[in-house]
Design a protein that fits this description.
75% helix; MetI-like fold; single chain; flat; 2 strands; mainly alpha; 335 residues
Length: 335
């Protein structure tokens, strides 16, 4: 019962928070210097016939999208549709009432797949590196891994994406060792979405910084756990150091990792906006960038809603994972 109350309380908080984000987005899109019709005027010219057509279209859009309604009414109407998973039409195709829903259903799985692949890389590589650094404390291996993790955390994903593209899509295609060892088999596609190879570079670009963070957190947490009495007891019984870490010290050390991976997954989903644009992935990030450039207000608001709701739901799942990893943690301890 206590857990149910906690989940319901958090879900209500998420609804209120997302509503505030959507309302703020509505308000910001109202005051941007240039709107959708200004973009259309720049694109198609400002002659008299064109202006008359745009004026008529503007009035039609005001009716279809209820642009003259108060802000609270627009936000309320939007959430009524969202409850039915219906995001309405976009400015580009106002006569297709479910166009944005179709776009979200097609593109969000791409973004989520890349983000989850990045998180998988962060965990599968970061956890062993952190444990290895802890077992080699104050050695050159520890210093090397710690320095590399610090560098990994400060390199922006889009910079790493460019470097990966130069190496895997350009360098390896044109370089070989001698006459019989070409490196073209290492080449990866630099754009598009169709196979697992298309996800490798975006996943690495998004997962590098979280991987570095995981390695640092695991190292610190394992070192702290190794000083606990139950670990010393296991070591005194003659068990190997690696076995003790894997069987006894690793699970308590995962709580800080869960702490950092929750926000990091949200960071990867939001960070995919630039990475998807670089790799020409047809995901939510590229949809969001295109909507902002074209001032497509319904599409911008829906993209913001999806990103905000995803980040907040991930944080809720992280809090629930705390209690799975460490049963001593109760809902009241999480606020």
């Amino acid at each position: 019962m206590e857990l149910l109350k906690f989940v319901v309380k958090r879900l209500l908080a998420i609804v209120v928070s997302v509503a505030c984000v959507v309302a703020l987005t509505f308000a910001m899109m109202r005051v941007v210097p240039s709107d959708y019709f200004a973009q259309m005027e720049l694109r198609y010219g400002a002659n008299t016939a064109g202006k008359q057509m745009l004026d008529q279209q503007r009035e039609e859009y005001r009716r279809i999208f209820h642009l003259d309604d108060p802000l609270w009414k627009q936000v309320g109407r939007y959430f009524v549709r969202v409850m039915k998973w219906d995001f309405g039409p976009s400015y580009k195709e106002p006569n297709e009432p479910h166009k944005i829903t179709e776009l979200v259903n097609a593109k969000f799985p791409v973004t989520l797949s890349v983000a989850l692949a990045g998180m998988g890389i962060a965990l599968l590589v970061g956890v062993p590196l952190g444990v290895f650094a802890a077992l080699r404390r104050n050695t050159w291996v520890d210093y090397l891994l710690t320095s590399a993790s610090m560098v990994g955390q400060v390199v922006p994903p889009y910079v790493l994406a460019v470097l990966l593209t130069l190496f895997f899509a350009v360098f390896v295609r044109n370089f070989q060792i001698g006459d019989s060892f070409p490196l073209a088999w290492l080449a990866l596609p630099s754009e598009g979405w169709g196979s697992w190879k298309n996800a490798v570079m975006p996943a690495i670009a998004l997962g590098a910084a979280p991987m570095a963070a995981v390695a640092r957190y695991i190292r610190s947490s394992v070192l702290e756990t190794l000083d606990q009495d139950f670990v010393r007891t296991a070591l005194s019984k003659g068990l190997g150091r690696l076995r003790v870490v894997v069987r006894h010290a690793l699970r308590p050390s995962l709580v800080p990792v869960v702490t950092v991976m929750g926000p990091q997954l949200g960071y990867m989903i939001v960070g995919s906006v630039l990475v998807e644009d670089l790799f020409r992935l047809q995901g939510l990030g590229s949809l969001f960038v295109g909507a902002i450039n074209e001032r497509d207000v319904p599409l911008v608001i829906t993209s913001t809603f999806i990103l905000a709701a995803t980040v907040m739901l991930v944080n809720l799942v992280v809090d629930l994972l705390y209690m799975v990893i460490d049963p001593r943690i109760r809902p009241k301890d999480l606020g």
